[in-house]
Structures are given as structure tokens and as C-alpha cells.
Amino acid sequence: MKKDTIKSIVVLSCICLVVAILLSGVNAITDPIIKNAAANAASSAYGDVLPGASELEEITGEFPETVKKALKDKGGKGFIFELATKNGYTKNEIAMVLGIGADGVITKLDITVYPESKGSEADFEALFAGKTADMTDVIAGTTITSNALKAAVKDAYDVYYEYAGVEKSDEQKLADLYEVLMPEAKDKSGAYSFTAVELPTDAPASITSIYKPSTEIGYLMIAKVNDLSVAMALNAYGKVYAVYDLDGNDLSGDSAYDSVKSDAENAIPSIYEANNDEILDLMIKEEVISSASDAQKVDFSAVSSRVVAVYKLKNGNAYIANADGYGGVLTVCYVINSKGEIVNYATLQHSERDNEYAALDYGTVIGFNSYAKRFDGKTTSSIDDDTLLIAGSTFTTNATKACWESIKAANEIINGEVQG
Amino acid sequence: MTQLKNLLRGIIVENPVLVLLLGTCPTLAKTNDVKTALGMGIAALLVLVCSNTVISVLRKVIPSNVRIPCFIVVIATFVTLVEMLMHAFIPSLYDSLGIFLSLIVVNCIILGRAEMYACKNGVLNSAVDGLGMGIGFTLALVCMATIREIFGLGTFFGLEIPFIKDYTLPILTQSAGGFFVFGLLIAIVNIFLNRTNKKPRQEFGCDGCPSAAGCTKTSCKTEGE
Prior knowledge:
The complex is a heterodimer.
Chain A: H1 2-49, E1 56-59, E2 67-73, E3 78-85, E4 94-101, E5 106-113, H2 121-128, H3 143-163, H4 170-181, E6 194-197, E7 207-213, E8 218-225, E9 228-235, E10 240-245, H5 258-275, H6 278-285, E11 288-290, E12 307-313, E13 316-324, E14 329-337, E15 342-349, H7 354-362, H8 370-373, H9 385-388, H10 394-419
Antiparallel strand pairs in A: 1-2, 2-3, 3-4, 4-5, 6-7, 7-8, 8-9, 9-10, 11-12, 12-13, 13-14, 14-15
Chain B: H1 2-11, H2 24-29, H3 34-57, H4 67-89, H5 91-97, H6 99-102, H7 108-118, H8 123-153, E1 155-156, E2 159-160, H9 162-165, H10 175-195, H11 220-224
Antiparallel strand pairs in B: 1-2
């Protein structure tokens, strides 16, 4: 038995040894040929990726691992990068030649070595052309490889910014800060998708740009304070909760930025108005007639502590109430006009699991989702269980029902008082 | 004469793809066009012949309890050799085969022949068996690729075929079309073998296996039932 074991070990080891010698011998012959071919493929792609580049000068320095070679066109046409990454799906090296034009936009990405299943190189090349470092698209079915290529391209841009004498734009710096400023703005695929919001004409001068995430949970703003650009994150109620400079330093506690914070908050009503954010527009612009400070006027504790705020609008009221859902606090907002019609509904906050509740009905926090559509054309008297309840989420919909009943009672009190 | 029979066995009666149904993965994935299929077939053929030969040479040295690791090492070596040589000298074919080239290592045909035949038979017999199986694999692939390329893409070996080009069936180039053609070919081979009284499967279970004659596993019969 023991003899057998030893024999097995010896034989297998011998085979492996012979094989290793054989393979290294062949590798010694083929490797230079393969490397040479790859280098030729890369350099023959130069003219292709950066048309018009005449005289290229190699840049030397400390580069990220993926950047194998960086070249600069002496005529100022742009930069060429040779990139290689092993983070693709097969973990084999993918080699690319990337051209970045003088304007910082990708002229062409040429994939010279592609070990993955064939067919998607052309898609990738088309995907990257004309984009910049902060592109977020991927090709369906090749997510891992897409991400590897994006990371490599981003590394190339890091070198580009270092050597091109071009400062990263404020927008690009802000993109690096999404994770810090608004981590909850990620969409379902885990990516950040912010769009620029047009600056309202009456916005304070200090505010230079405004961005809104696809998840609509607030706003990011860039403002200038004494020539320093700062990024601010505002929640959906229009309150600033974080201030950072664009290099990622936390300035939230610094009172020097209080004035710019209030500038940002003051800009919110105009943004809502310009973007037709109905409920929020109404909520923020109008005078608050009852909340903690106005408790004597309308005592909601008589109704229920669920109603946390009422905003008086031109032609009605907006009510905010909360109750405990299955996963945590649920906050809803109803806008009811003086005729008792439900003008709008929004789920302001919920803690239900996305797959079961949000995707079906409650939607993203703050949003006009399919659940909200149930209230189309309803009045205070026509809302019933069918309107409010969602099958399979009894607990949470009971919370929405409790909220509604409190709001209905509050609405009766307010209307009674106004009319009386 | 026996060698000829040995060779032909792999091509028809025990065709690895269409009768034994081994190596289905490259069969479905790399039969979009004839050129790639031929490359895939030849690469596998080279590996088959070499690994069968080497394993047959070493069959008396390799202890049976580590035979599978030994076979895999030998097979992986030849696959890597083919891969490196192809990368250096035929880069276009290397590119079009992609990951399926390295996957030859786990191709059932090769390990199957090592375990089934090469480790029990002489060097010449094993080499001829590998050659026959390799040719059988290549022919099956080329056959399938011919149908898929002509009717799916309207080309043959990359050359356009005038009339058919305008009436292609794109589904044939997709995986589903691959299964369709695969099934069709298996059916045709079955009809042919039935006619010549060499039914590939007389019955289900081990006895019905076309390779039953070469199989020495004693418990085979009961397992099959």
C-alpha cells in the first residue's frame, strides 16, 4: 500500500517535470514571436486610433498597472495609450490601443488581443468611441469584461490628466465623489446615473451646476466659494446634508460654507418649478401652516401623531404622514385640493425590499410610481381598501392605510377650521 | 486490415460526436463556419493522436490510482503546446477559436479515449484510434458547419454562394440552430447505421453502448440497468 502511494507520487511528479521542461522549451520559442506580433498589432493601430498623429513621443513615469505605454503626439493631436487588463471574464490578457483626442474625448479604442469569446470586440470598439472617462454603459452579456475595459480606460485617463496639462473638469471630479456624497443614489444595476439639471435663471450666483440622480432622491450641486469649488448633496426635501471640496475633503462641519448651503437650499424651489416636481414644488414653496411650531392652531395630536407635517398650498394642502411598514418607517405624502380631490400622491420613504415592494408598486423613494397612479381621479371619499392595499404586503399596506386615515381626519379638521 | 478497421471505427460506427455524443460543447459552439470547425477539429485531432500515443507508452508505468491526473496532465500539455504554436504561427485561427482551444483539455473525447482505449492497448493501435476518432470528430464538425454556414450565412469557406445568400436562415448560426442541425445529423447517422445493421443503440443501458465491446468494467451491466 505504502509502496503504491510512493510510486504514484513519483510517477506523477516525473510526468509533471518532463511536461514542464517541454512546455518551457516551446514557450521560449513561441513567446517572442507572439509578443512581437502583439507589439506590431499595437503599433500598426496607432495611426488608426489617432488619425493625423505624425510624430509620437513616449511618456515615461509611474503609470497604473494597466497602462503599458503612453505616447503623446507632438503636433498636439492627442494621446495614445497601450492598455492591457487581465480582469476580463477569462482572466487572460486583453490588449487595447486607446486614442484620446486633444479635446479629451476617445477617438478610438482598438482591441488588439481579445481572448474572450469572439464577436463582442466590435461592440466594445463602437461603445467607447466618442465617450470620456465617466461613461457608464456596458454591453449586455459581457458585464465583467465591460467593467474591466472601463477600468483600464479610466486608468488611461488618469495618466492623460496628469500629462495632458488638462485639469479634470469639476463634473469629472464630482463623478469621483458620487460614492461619498450620495451612495444611496445607485440604481438597481449598482451604477450612478446623474443628469445635469438646467440652472434656474434666478439661482444664486454661487451655484454653478446642479445634477439629479436617476433615482430622484435628491440633488448634487457644485458651488464656488472664494474660487474654491465645493460639492453639496441635498436630500429630497431640499436640505443640504453634506459639503465636500472636489478633492474629497469633508467640509460639512465648517461654518464658512453656511452661506453657500443656504444659497443651495434657496435654489431648490426654482429647480422644482422649472422641472415640474409637483409635490415637492408645492411642499417647499408654500408656507407651512402646521407643524411642531403651529401646533396650537391645528392640534394634530388629537387626530394622530402619524401626521407629521401639513403644507398649505394655493388651492389645497399637502399632508405628510408616517407609520411603521414591514421593513421600517413608511412616509407618504398626499396633496388634496379644496374640493377633496387627490391631486397627487408620493411615497417619500420606505424600507421595503426592492424586489418585492418597490419594483412592484412603492417605487423609488420619492417618485411618481405605479402605486401613485392608483390615486388618479380619487377623492377623499372614494379612497377605499382596493385603492390602498397591495396583495402580499399586508403589513406595509396597513401602514399606508393608517397614514391615509390620519390624513383624512387631519384634512377634515383643517377644512372645517378654514371654512368655519 | 485491423488498423484500417480500427481507424474506421472512430469515423463511423463509434463516431465520437454523432454516435457517442461526446465533445458536444465545441460541436455546438464552433460550427458556425467551416474554417473554424476545421481548425477546431484538427487541433483536437492533433491532441488526440499525441495524447493517445503518450498515454499508451506510459500505460504500464502509470499506477491506476493516479491515472486520471496523469492523463489530464498529458492532455493539458498537448493542448497548451497546440495553443502556443497556433498563437505564434496561425494567429488568425487562434483568435477565431478563442477559449474553445484551451477547453480541448476537458473535451470528453480525449479523456474518454485515454481511459477507454489508450491505457489498455498498444502504441500503434492507440495512435490509429486517436487518428480515427480525431478524423471522426473533424468530419462531424465540418459536416455540421457546412450545413450551418451554407444555409445560415450563405457562404462556404468564406466564399459567397450567389442564390442562397439571399435566402439565409439566420437561426442556423445561433445556438438553437446548432442543436437543430446536430439532432438532424444524429438522426441521419442513426438511419444509416440501422440500414447497415450496426445499430448504435440496440437497447438502453450498458450493453447498448457502441463501446461496450471495449469496456472492461465488470459492474457495467448492472450499473446500466
